[in-house]
Amino acid sequence: MATLRKLVSDVRSTHKLLSSDGLITNRAIASEIKNNTQLLIKRETNLRKLWATDTLFTTIPCLEMIEVPISECCGYTDPCQVARSKYKLPRMSEGNYQYLIQGVYSINAMGGQGRKFKEVTINRYLNLLKLPIIKNEQYYWIANGGYVYVNNPLLKAIRFSAFFEEDVPNEIMYPTIGCGCGSYTTDELCVNPLDKEYGCPGYLEKQVLDLTSQRLLSTYFNIKSDMTSDNVDGQAPNAKPTN
Fold first, then answer.
1. What is the pTM of this model?
2. Of 4, 139, 144, 168, which is the most exposed, with the fewest CB atoms less than 10 Å away?
3. Could you give the residue ranges of the DSSP H alpha helices within the chain?
4. How do residues 134-170 score in pLDDT, each as one tens digit?
5. Cα–Cα distance, 11 to 27 (Å, whole number)
6. Is pLDDT above 80 for 47?
7. Secondary structure class of 181 (helix, strand, coil)
8. Edge to edge, what strands does the sheet with 113-116 contain?
9. How many CA atoms lie within 13 A of 73 on its CB side?
C-alpha cells in the first residue's frame, strides 16, 4: 500500500506547474488527497462496498473505558451505569445512514478480539431497558460529540475499528494501561504521518490523484479542470499562475 508521501509525490509529478511551485506545500496536497479520498470512500460504502477490507479502517486495539452514569449521555435518571471511552474519538466519516464503523468488540483474556457489540442509538437502548426481560446483549452507541458508550460498565477496554477523517492521537492509539492488547515500538510513536501506509483502496488511487490534481490547478492557477483521456489538462504550455 502506498504512503501518503508517495501519493503527494505522484500529484506533483503529474503536472509541471504543481511540481515547480513552492507555494503549494506537501501539507496542502496531502489535505486535498484526504478530502478526495473521503469523498470517494463515502460513495463506495454507501453502495455497500469496502466494508470487509482490512486496509481502509483504522483499528484501535485497546480503547480505554471508564464507568459513568447513563444520565451523562441522556435524560434517563435511573441509577444505571455504563462504560464510556476515556477520550473523545477523532472525527469519523458518516455515510447515508450511520458512522463508518466496521466493528466494536470486547477483548478476550489473551488480548485478542472477543464478542462483537451491536450498534444502537441511545433512545433505542432506553426502550430496551423498559422491556420486562433484558436480553444478554452487548450494545454500543456514539454520543456527546464522539465518545463511545457500551452498556457493560465493567469493561476496561474495547477494540474499535472505524474510518476516521482525522489522525488518531497516540494517547488513544497506543494506550499505557498494560492490558496486553497489542505491542508497539518507539519508532511507531514517532513516525511521520506522511510515511504511514495510507488507507486508500488501490482501485480508487487514480481517481483520488486526478481529483486532487484538478482541484489544485483550478485553485492555484485558475486552470479549467477538464482532463483529457491522457490525463493532460489541455491548457497552453505557458499557462501562468494567477496573482
1. 0.81
2. 144
3. 4-14, 16-20, 26-46, 122-129, 170-173, 186-190, 202-220
4. 667 899 999 998 999 999 999 999 999 999 999 999 8
5. 12
6. yes
7. coil
8. 113-116, 101-107, 157-162, 58-69, 81-85, 147-150, 139-143, 118-119
9. 27
